[in-house]
Amino acid sequence: MDLNKLMMDYLAEEGYRPHETPFGIAFKKEGINYLYFKDEDDEQYFRLMMPAIFQVTEDNEDSIMRAMNDVNGSIKVVKLYTMDMEDEKGEKDTAVWVAFEILADTTPELGDIVPRAINLLDGGRIAFLARLEEMADN
């Protein structure tokens, strides 16, 4: 099973216009970026991510960690965490990413997995932003 090829074919058939990146497969839905990360060491590992949904600064880091923890404990299969990225100028930037991670069987039905993964990722993003807003209001 080549999950990467299956994912690329599925996304193309569904009209997402996917393209290869050094990390995996990138595509957009309704203006939101998604990344499917390939794992050459584990053919069954399926990880779809919504990258860089919120910038982390020294001023908001504590609130972000609390909000991520709250969401991580309340939504199935979705994890929020921070990732450091380097821009074209070599400057480091930290942002919150949302991940959907599962172990797929040997004959995954991506038509069942991908739409639900996208919905859960979006739900994680919405819950995180709502929790941050709630914390700011208190």
Descriptive key words:
138 residues; alpha+beta; Yope Regulator, Chain: A; 37% helix
Can you walk through the features of this model?
- The protein has 138 residues and is α+β, with helices and mostly antiparallel strands.
- 37% of the residues lie in helices and 34% in strands.
- It is globular.
- The termini are far apart.
For the largest sheet, list the strands in their spatial order: 1-2-3-4-6-5
How many distinct beta strands? 6
Average pLDDT number? 93
Oligomer description:
single chain
| Backbone structural class | alpha+beta
Rg of Cα set: 16 Å
Shape: globular
Amino-to-carboxy terminus distance: 50 Å
Helical segment tally? 3
Query: How helix-rich are the residues, as a percent range?
Result: 25-40%
Beta-strand residue fraction: 25-35%
Uncertain parts: none
Report the sheet with the most strands, covering strand number, pairing sense and barrel closure.
Answer: 6 strands, antiparallel
The topology string of helices and strands comes to HEEEEHEEH
CATH class: Alpha Beta
**What is the name of the CATH architecture?**
2-Layer Sandwich
**Count of separate structural domains:** 1
